[in-house]
Amino acid sequence: MLRLAAKLVAFFWRRQDVPENEAGPPGPELTEGDVKLRTVQGVVTRYCSDYGMIDDLIYFSHEAVTSRVLLNVGQEVMAVVEENKVSNGLKAVRVEAVSDKWEDDSKNSGRGLSDPSPRVLIGCVTSLMGGTGYINQTTRFSLESVCEGFQPCKGDWVEAEYWIRPGTWSSEAISVKPLRYKRVDKACISSLCGRNGVIEDSIFFTLDSLKLPEGYTPRRHDVVSAVVVESSQSCYVWRALCLTPVHRDATAPGVLPEESYGTLLLKNKGNVEVTRMTNFGTLKEGARKAMVIWIENKGDIAQKLVSCKLAGWDKAKQFRFQDQARPAVSLVSVPEEAKDFSDESTESFKSRSENNTHQPLKGIAVSSGEVFPGDCTCEDREKENTASEKQVADAEPGELVPPGGKTCIMVVCDAKNPGRCKELLLLCFSNFLIGRHLEVSVVSAEESLIAVREPFSWKKPKSCQALAPTKTTVVVTTQKRNSRRQLPSFLPQYPIPDRLKKCVEQKIDVLTFQPMLAELLNMSNYKEKFSTLLWLEEIHAEIELKEYNMSGVTLKRNGDLLVLEVPGLAESRPSLYAGDKLILKTQEYNGHVIEYIGYVIEIHEEDVTLKLNPEFEQTYNFEPMDVEFTYNRTTSRRCHFALEQVVHLGVKVLFPEEIILQSPQVTVWNHIQDAREDGQFTSKDSKTTKDQTKPAAKERPVGTENQPGAAETHDAVDETEIPKAKDTEFFNPVLNENQQLAVRRILSGDCRPLPYILFGPPGTGKTVTIIEAVLQVHRALADSRILVCAPSNSAADLVCLRLHESKVLRPAAMVRVNATCRFEETILDAIKPYCKDGEDIWKASRFRVIITTCSSAGLFYQIGVRIGHFTHVFVDEAGQASEPECLIPLGLVSDVSGQIVLAGDPMQLGPVIKSRLAMAYGLNVSMLERLMSRPAYLRDENAFGACGAYNPLLVTKLVKNYRSHSALLALPSRLFYHKELEVCADPAVVTSLLGWEKLPKKGFPLIFHGVRGNEAREGRSPSWFNPAEAVQVMRYCCLLARSISSPVSASDIGVITPYRKQVEKIKILLRNVDLVDIKVGSVEEFQGQEFLVIVISTVGTLAAVPGPGCPGVARVERQGAAGWRLLDPGATWAVAPESSPGDDQETRKVEGVQEETVTAPAGLRAGQREAPCRRGAASHTAHSVCGELTLSTLLSFNSPLLVQVTCR
Question: Basic and acidic residues bias: where (predicted)?
Fold first, then answer.
């Protein structure tokens, strides 16, 4: 058999020689002893980790590959081959890659995989475990490869050199160093919480990784010097590596060891054992329960119980000792056999008193709120903790607890406030302190109305069968996807590369297939990098969608059509739209499965009406079917197409470096001087600014190049007068100075086609400025055609509504183009007249002003509209759109005279990206944010201090806030906007509820209310709800609507919650108390509206970081227009008070309400969350998701009161 195989190989060897002799001179032949070597060229046909085959003839091992690079099947190689004389087999002793292909039709930019030199990767440390870590989740590194003196932490930004490990399909860094670092001298430690702290409100540090001089422990207000590195840590972009004290504040308290107030406190000490079961369980509101806590001395030395105290965590004072005058101590001699610590015992207790002096507690002291080590005695602390109800008693020294003796105390719980409650019991002995947590869960009567009606049961799809059916019949319906619009589609399919999909599914390092992902974004890799990132996001979406496939479901009938019930559809889990395709499969029978292709034609709540094959619709007899959902790739295909179209914009738009001044499109009002005449540009700016105001630089109208006579009329065009703005100036007479400046800059277009950025923090009138600019361009430039886009329908609708309310544009001049899948009932009545003409895309494309979403702008590609069709493109809320999505409308503007305006706030939440790989490599960075980091757009107070610290030709920052009370504005202004935001809201509005009798802190219109509730799901709905939060929301609404001093109309109260099921439960409760006029919904439903009071329910718990299915770790779907990356976005819709929950905040008692926080929102303390300022480095925790729903709400709604209720 071997001899036959050898002859067969020898035959092919001869066949190998023949073409070489015919085609030309043979390849180089080497002689090495008696072995002949030949150089041949072939293709890798098989390859695994240790060996491979070339043309299925030549064997090679991975040691033979030059530089041991990773080869791919189908790759062309040059090989030095030897023949084994015994077996006549062929073996390659050297293999070198000729080229490296990315799929079949494109090549990698830069160096190929065969290049042995290391590549450079800039990324974020995403995990650390033991002696290894990962950059961008894929590139492994060892701590040994980290540069000396640098101890990396999760969130650090690093620069690494890496290579592809042959045969392992993974990348590994060979050197890692900080991306940026600096030394900070004489800085003050501004805050300290546990083991985390902040220097100068800008540099984060943690004692877990901080290098300190021996014997030094940081304290608040210490002046230190530090070496810091760039890192994404909550709201901070720097992390301290080491600290050196310069000056210590002698009055500042010390930092506690972590276990001093944690594990150590709860441990038994001195051979004294205390009952550990101190949970009262679940009690109904108003109920009472007593519990006996036993204390046993198992040592040989008598111990003295000096006093018993409650730390005061529970402000509602639901726990007390049985004798409120003082906790009694009963010394009981208990036989060994009676050591059953019963919680039900209600023995009477006798107190004894002696006039003995208390002994100091060594290293331990007790306060009403926290436990600190110190040198103070129990006696000192007792004086500080005297309460009105004598919960902390001045217990006089009792008799000693003898060896083997026991004593007990009785604690009573009076259930007052719904939710979970925890208190700390402190047992103070002569030489030590023992603590126990007292816990109870209180259920209110109202919660029974919204309790779980049926257990949650999620139907999982059937596991894949081992053997596929032998035959599958696909029956396709005649229904077309776009039934409303018969549009030609010029969009290519842009299929996901199989190799990339395999890479993600098998968790193979993507850098082995697309190494340019690790490169910095530039013009040469722009298209390839974003295409790969879009595919990664699609792959994740397809995998996620498979989780919602259903098996064994029965369809309902609605006339001649079939209806499918999809649990969770209201929560967009899964996300379906009209026109989407579904696959219905029959149950397997004799190895046969029939597939029916159906299309969604209508959606009502969780019922989906399908259009299927007519024969199937008639014969269907309620047989069980399996359902597969398919991903709608329309938006993704439009993004891919836009990437091809925007190449014409080039470096000057996508990577602007220098400013070239153009002739103004419109001359501005005479009393306004141009910035060039203001002396605002320094010598530094003049280096990158070129004056281009010669007549030859004047540009012809778009499209004249190919018109007859265009060449002859060129000179005439140059000599035409530039349009002038009319004397009436602004349509909106109340625009402030910065808004007027932005409109003039847009109208002038001095730097076109460079994008002009309108930097608008929430509440500063960004949309109002866009409206004015659109109206001015429409009036002043008769040849203009304006495209106004936004990432969401609600944002686009708001622009259309405001333009309608201006009474300047009529339906004949403006059109609203909607997506084909949008239902008419979701459109506002006021803008419906503008939507009628939008159904005809050809007709709509000729309107002067067109409003649509970024994705729907791709409809114009489908009818053949191309570059230069629009003279002006406005993108509102540009910070919420991914860069490829933003490019869809930009690909339709002229690259010569087109004007691009991006309006948004780079400090707010960015685009929603679900693929962690796509996030790690930058898809979650919007074009607005990326441009703001370019040198031409950077903040420079020295060069542009007189005009807002930004180049006024490119950026205008709005700083006057018209929505929020000063107390709500102070924190975000300090953290994100260089303390530049100005309070300009109507005082009569923002102060209207400051005197509300239930407001914990008068004059502070914000309430954070912590509820220790439990989130739940029911039935087949994946949506979450929290009964305790819902009840608390209802109680706040009742207090507001029925207030004696400041009653609020139900129509002036809005309730925001991110989960559909919570909306349903809150509506039930409000209906029960006759408050049906209160609007309840998601943030999206509140965009552009104003309410006197906003109440927010976040649903998710803050007690722990939940798993992916828990509401705290949200599928971070945009729930509204605003939201800072680390703060509570919901809190910005208020102009007066708001209420929002948090943990460990100062709370104040409100009658009839549980606990409200009157301090800064939870999650702002260092180290408590992972929502980075440079996104993509860390995932959102429960704390961050709750946080991302509040403070932007504060600034986005004109509400005098904001109340946030959150599960702690």
Answer: 677-702
